[in-house]
Amino acid sequence: MNLEQHTPRPYWNSYWAGFGLGLVLLASFVIMGRGLGASGAFTTAVATVVHQVAPAHAENSPFYSEYLGDGTHSPLKDWLVFEVLGVFVGGFLSGVLAHRLKFTVEQGPRSTTPRRLAFAFVGGGLMGIGAKIALGCTSGQALTGGALLNVGSWAFMWCVFGGAYAVAYFFRKQWI
Amino acid sequence: MNAPFYKFGLFGDEASFIIAFLIGIGFGFFLERAGFGSARKLAAQFYLRDLSVLKVMFTAIITAMTGLYVFSRLGMLDLSLVYLVPTFLVPQIVGGLLLGVGFVIGGYCPGTSCVSAATGRIDGMVYILGMVAGLLGFGEVYPRIVNFAHSTSMGQITLPQLFDLPYGLLVFAAVLMALGAFAASEWAEKRFGGKQPDPEGSIIGGSRRLTPVRALALSLAVIGLCAAFAGDPYRGHHTTIATRDLEMRVGQGADLIEPAQLADWIIQDRNDFRLVDLRPQKDYIAWHIPRAENFPLASLTPDFAAHNEKIILCSDDSLEAAKAWFLLEAQGFKSVYVLSGGMQGWKDFVLFPVRPQGATDAAFERQAQVAKFFGGSPQASNTEASSVATPAPPRVAPAPLPTAPPASTSTAPPRKKKEGC
Prior knowledge:
A: mainly alpha, 64% helix, B: 421 residues, Oxidized Rhodanese, domain 1, five-stranded parallel sheet, two-stranded antiparallel sheet, 15 helices, 7 strands, disordered C terminus
């Protein structure tokens, strides 16, 4: 299939996309008794790699050891890891169906690619650290905990928006 | 339906991984559909050009929230079995602020970066690398900040518990807040993003017709409104106990029922109470008060009887009876009483009543008749009272005599038999 021949379809209306997302979240609650997540899977992957490279170091770390399980099976055999694999597949499927697969860099007209990629790396790093301090990211805390009226999740959610709006002005050249 | 299915053992871990994968596909699919594979679209939220992040997130939150409420309220789902991330307030505030800053710099959050990378966005892939680097760094630093990460612990706590407000009321408040935020978002998009509202896809703009989007918003608002009045969705696991009320009832002895009163009710064959024998099964089989059902303490689950039924507890262990009484009160049972004096009280006052010194035959006649009804025999004096025909359990200290018998509730429903088990 030559993707260049197709123009990307427009995105869905936000409310319907959100409704679909809400139903997936609800299904997760009803079937599994837990919500969605994302950062936890990456932590498990990181902990597994650290464990492969330096087993003693990982087992002695109060951080990595929590993600290594009881040792009876691979730590990657974890619910969130499978869920995040699904996220990649689901995103890919949706992208294919809407002709949105494209190797590109998302940035504003005033941004340059090297700077954008450097910022993506730094932003990813900050999010990784923040998500671990907060015990979850936008998926595990804001979405999941938000729907459960979790105290910490609502505090977290407002702080994500607050933090982002507070610094948005300084990074405007990257986006607009 | 007993949900969450996994927690009720409907399938095992292996199957749960397949389900995880399928749920993930749904998650990724809708994130991509919403346009969240694009950092520009996501970041536009913070310049008020395109507020899709807020709209998608809050629609998802209130959809799942109202759905959970409805399932729980209908008794199809046990909300207390849904995992709740414990609250560590300050770390979550700090982490949230860091995520917010990282969101503007990086353009994604962890979930959306997966979708972005899967659709070929190079910045999304680099973001994931950055996240991995951040996690590695955090892993090394963690031992030094572990005290901070565990500070301001509040346990697993929801907003309704924190503010002591009805759960449904907060569901309604969240729905109203979301709908208000949607209206504000559409206004901002028009004002700052120069977007003309799409008449089919907006809540406030365009025509006055009831478009599907408005129907969705209206449905969520109606469910929220109903929730505000429909009570607590938890299955009686989280109840507030009116300690003052309990104190007064215990103080007045209104939590006790006299053996003679119970005997009358049994003779009259009243059907508005259930007599629960807390003793081990072998003791129950050996002998029990007529009508008694055997429920050892551990089997007193919140659904063992209707909450408005009158329940009378009897045991030969006053501590056991007190535990059961408190447990049932805490589970929200409306009228729970303990048989005064327990099984021994029943023997002393009903089966083998002792004629008081100087009492006339006439006065004692009724007690004697009751004793005979239950297969006992009246005793002439104190000295003979110890020789009882039935296996005598060790005597427990009789509970203090109550001053007033409990008021009978004439509105109680017909007696319901124990089901299953």
